[in-house]
Amino acid sequence: MKIFKRPSMATLADVDTDAALAEARKLIGRRIEQPARRAFLQRSLTLGGLSLLSGCSISDNATVEAALMRISRFNDAAQAWIFDPTRLAPTYPDAMITRPFPFNAFYGEDEVREVAEAGYRLEVTGLVADKRSWTLADLRAMPQQDQVTRHICVEGWSAIGKWGGVPFADFLRRIGADTSARYVGFKCADDYYTSIDMPTALHPQTLLTLTYDGQPLPPKYGFPMKLRMPTKLGYKNPKHIRAIFVTNTYPGGYWEDQGYNWFGGS
């Protein structure tokens, strides 16, 4: 099995940060129509050195978007460099679980997708040795793990929940995934999609979640399965997963393709 090597600092040198900062500062102007996204960009740009943007409005024209995306790529590289694949996120006692745990998605709770267990198959493709489909029974037969961790949303709230399922690293090794590949991508039954870096995929707390609070995962929390990563912001945790693929080609994501940082560390 190939071993992942931490990216070198050369990846950070690919970004002309001085030029990007100067361009972004010059083009501060009209406000973006999506307040949550604007606030997210203002917070996340600090890693790229744009602390001067705090409290400012940012133009949404194409040139500004390009400047912001260059800073976003710098942030991704910086976060990947400082990410420790062995450092654990805090865990909590059951008494601290947030009840009820909040619903979150890019649609309303009355639009939650109902996925039938009968006939469900998890597709596995890409740089893996075993491309067979998986049933929920197959996944439930693997060793399970519980965790009580905090979900942190980019919109500023957080909640503690209890998740159970298969350690994702175990699943990747079971299917013979190339763990030197750069990305793991996810396609979901609610048309959501996202992708993560391989070190996060192999993190010991990254969980292919099948239960919530000791019960089968409810539809509003992502049935039949959700990827739970306490080291990532909420939008990086896909629900209703129907396909997983391993690749070296950048897959993007639903929010990432609209300007959110791709790495999304919490």
TrEMBL record:
Domain Oxidoreductase molybdopterin-binding stretches: 113-255
Record InterPro entries: OxRdtase_Mopterin-bd_dom, OxRdtase_Mopterin-bd_sf
Domain of life the protein comes from: Bacteria
SUPFAM superfamilies associated with the record: Oxidoreductase molybdopterin-binding domain
UniProt-listed Pfam families: Oxidored_molyb
PANTHER family hit by this protein: BLL0505 PROTEIN, PROTEIN-METHIONINE-SULFOXIDE REDUCTASE
Protein name as annotated: Molybdopterin-binding protein
